[in-house]
Write the structure tokens for this entry.
Amino acid sequence: MRYNEMLVIPMRRDLTQYGVEETRTPEEVDAALGPNSGTVLVVVNSVCGCAAGKARPAVGMALRNAVRPDRTITVFAGADVEAVAHLRSGKLAEVPPSSPSMALFRNGEPVFVLHRRDIETQEAPDIAADLVEAFEQHCGARA
């Protein structure tokens, strides 16, 4: 069952205010995660409390870092149903489904994943620090 769009609008805005792009269809996900897409952070948004109090604020904090992905996108579990299913069955097929969650991709391949369990057990600044560490490792200048 899909969430009522009126319910999720403010939760979508929690990410788009940081410049995060919404990808609501499988085609938009594929376009964002193509073979020459550079580095892309994908945030699987959710209505749960840990998304509101931890995951979404952490994304905003992490995106203030000087080194960050070329692009940051989001899909919303329970709202962008087809896009989330496509992401999970394709690019993240080897990763157990989790929402909220975050995955950093380089040229369409996942190089870092934060699961819900990683988000639930930390505070937003700690999650942001994990993201920044991944950005520094995977998004900086490449040899």
